[in-house]
């Protein structure tokens, strides 16, 4: 894998910075990305970025992007950071993660990243990858068994062209080596004291007057939560352990990254459409679909070319062990519900629902769906995420077909809500997308994706629910390919509100927000950091922008 350490960095003159800023809102016509994303061209520029430094000094078509500096002090400056700081982080991370050529991208190529295996017998493995993934269709999450894919009781999502939607999980080396070291007790617990609550607890421990019956040791154990690395000290602990364990850390400043990706069969897209998607190769289950009403039993596997339709970018930043949860979608997935933003003239303006065009998950010119209900689900083998069949959930026999889908709460805010907070957040996200997309070169496949929102906490607190008062950003966030059926109340009336509705932790432990951490098995120890995975051999071929 190509890393930022072997990409030349260039200094930028002031004139280049000024020019990039001007271009960021005056080049809609040059590449049409913002126009294709249906972004209003009169949005107030409340959140902008100069992406030239992200590319190392020169923006190139599908070129290499460096990871955002997750250790930047601004993230831990709780009194002065803004939503824009986190949205810029998300945009740069997405461009970095999707840097690469063909089926090989940063997020699915070792040694920097691992694919995460399907869960079997409550265990998952870190799998070295060279662009080939083994995926499954979605299986629902329950309290007892965490499965691969989005929540929703095992419901299946089909594209309008009848492709099943497949899901992958990925984690970077910092995440993998932290998980390995933590589960083997390799870290000094004091390193992981980072939050105000942790520090207060540690102070109480130090003031403890006696060790009678182990009181102080017990108290200290309660202080040291399992926190994903979110400081330079914690990163050093992971890096030192990784070196002693025989593994390199490639882009440490990215800190810990966990990803979820969603894909459709590229064979269902035309040649011209396929040029607009990040693609990969994957081995997926195949089904006998001869009975339109189901069940569709598994009848084998096949290697397919898949097209990316969604990505959750989840990662720690300075002072935020809870992770920042950003999400991205292809611009052709679904239309937006109505939303309000602020124009350059400080006027509140409404964008209305418009389904004109070709969509992955909604018929052309379809009326706004009144409900988003699944009509099929996955049955899986006991103790495994691997599917055995797809069955209908209809009360009477009826075909398993694509459902009508749309983005109920655009930009992760209550639709049509005129509150100052929601309008301001809408404006920030429209602005950062317009800024970034307008600076990309025509032909860059990443120009066909938008950041639809992000959520985190004010001071790095571990949220207890999706309605935690400490949450910031897009408080109604959902990806239409991953939380499709949780945009509206499910049959039991449950609405998680946002990512933390399902990824909260009542024990104030950051590792509790991850649904894969508990099942992941440690990496095997190596004798030397020179023994890299096979995925590293062709790393020089990753960057099509060179």
Structure, explained:
This protein has helices spanning 14-23, 28-31, 33-36, 83-97, 173-183, 196-206, 215-223, 232-245, 271-274, 420-439, and strands spanning 100-101, 104-105, 109-116, 126-130, 132-134, 136-137, 166-172, 257-265, 279-287, 296-317, 320-330, 339-342, 348-351, 376-380, 387-392, 449-457, 471-473. By secondary structure, the protein is an alpha+beta fold. It has one domain (4-541). Strands 3, 4, 5, 6, 7, 8, 9, 10, 11, 14, 15, 16 and 17 form a 13-stranded mixed beta sheet that branches. The longest helix has 20 residues, at 420-439. It is globular. The model is unreliable at 1-24, 140-151 and 530-546 (pLDDT under 50).
Explain briefly what this protein structure is.
The protein is an alpha+beta fold and 546 residues long. The protein is 19% helix and 20% strand.
Summarize the topology:
Layout: H1 14-23, H2 28-31, H3 33-36, H4 83-97, E1 100-101, E2 104-105, E3 109-116, E4 126-130, E5 132-134, E6 136-137, E7 166-172, H5 173-183, H6 196-206, H7 215-223, H8 232-245, E8 257-265, H9 271-274, E9 279-287, E10 296-317, E11 320-330, E12 339-342, E13 348-351, E14 376-380, E15 387-392, H10 420-439, E16 449-457, E17 471-473
Overview features:
alpha+beta; globular; disordered N terminus; two-stranded antiparallel ribbon; 546 residues; 13-stranded mixed beta sheet
């Amino acid at each position: 894998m190509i890393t930022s350490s072997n990409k030349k960095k260039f200094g930028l003159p002031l004139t280049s910075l000024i020019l990039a800023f001007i271009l960021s809102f005056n080049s809609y016509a040059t590449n049409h990305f913002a126009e294709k994303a249906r972004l209003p061209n009169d949005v107030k520029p409340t959140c902008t970025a100069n992406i030239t430094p992200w590319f190392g000094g020169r923006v190139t078509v599908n070129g290499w992007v460096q990871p955002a500096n997750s250790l930047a002090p601004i993230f831990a400056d709780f009194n002065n950071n803004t939503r824009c700081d986190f949205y810029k982080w998300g945009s740069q991370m997405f461009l970095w993660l999707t840097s690469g050529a063909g089926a090989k991208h940063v997020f699915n190529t070792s040694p920097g990243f691992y694919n995460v295996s399907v869960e079997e017998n409550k265990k998952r493995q870190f799998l070295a990858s060279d662009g080939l993934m083994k995926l499954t269709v979605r299986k629902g999450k329950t309290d007892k068994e965490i499965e691969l894919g989005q929540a929703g009781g095992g419901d299946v999502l089909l594209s309008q062209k009848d492709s099943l939607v497949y899901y992958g999980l990925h984690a970077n080396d910092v995440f993998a080596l932290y998980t390995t070291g933590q589960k083997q007790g390799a870290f000094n617990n004091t390193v992981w004291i980072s939050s105000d609550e942790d520090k207060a607890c540690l102070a109480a421990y130090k003031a403890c007057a006696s060790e009678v019956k182990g009181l102080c040791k017990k108290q200290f154990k309660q202080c040291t939560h399992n926190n994903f690395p979110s400081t330079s000290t914690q990163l050093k602990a992971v890096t030192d352990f990784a070196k002693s364990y025989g593994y390199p850390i490639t882009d440490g400043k990215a800190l810990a990254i966990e990803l979820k990706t969603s894909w459709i069969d590229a064979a269902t897209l035309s040649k011209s459409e396929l040029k607009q998607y990040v693609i990969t190769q994957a081995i997926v289950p195949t089904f006998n679909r001869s009975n339109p009403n189901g069940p569709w039993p598994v009848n084998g596997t096949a290697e397919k070319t898949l097209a990316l339709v969604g990505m959750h970018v989840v990662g720690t930043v300075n002072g935020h062990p809870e992770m920042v949860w950003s999400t991205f979608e292809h611009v052709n997935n679904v239309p937006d519900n109505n939303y309000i933003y602020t124009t350059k003239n400080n006027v509140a303006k409404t964008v209305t629902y418009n389904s004109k065009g070709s969509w992955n998950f909604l018929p052309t010119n379809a009326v706004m769906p009144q409900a988003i209900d699944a009509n099929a689900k996955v049955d899986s083998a006991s103790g495994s995420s691997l599917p055995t069949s797809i069955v209908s959930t209809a009360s009477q026999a009826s075909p398993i077909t694509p459902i009508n889908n749309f983005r109920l709460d655009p930009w992760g805010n209550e639709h049509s809500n005129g509150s100052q907070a929601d309008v301001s957040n809408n404006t920030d996200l429209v602005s950062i997308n317009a800024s970034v997309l307008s600076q990309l070169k025509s032909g860059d496949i990443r120009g066909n994706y938008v950041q639809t929102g992000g959520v985190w906490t004010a001071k790095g607190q571990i949220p207890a629910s999706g309605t935690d008062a400490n949450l910031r950003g897009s408080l109604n966030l959902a990806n239409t390919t991953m939380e499709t059926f949780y945009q509206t109340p499910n049959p039991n009336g449950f609405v998680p509100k946002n990512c933390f509705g399902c990824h909260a932790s009542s024990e104030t432990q950051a590792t509790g927000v991850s649904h894969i951490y508990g099942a992941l098995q440690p990496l095997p120890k190596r004798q030397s950091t020179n023994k890299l995975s096979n995925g590293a051999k062709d790393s020089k071929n990753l960057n099509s922008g060179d």
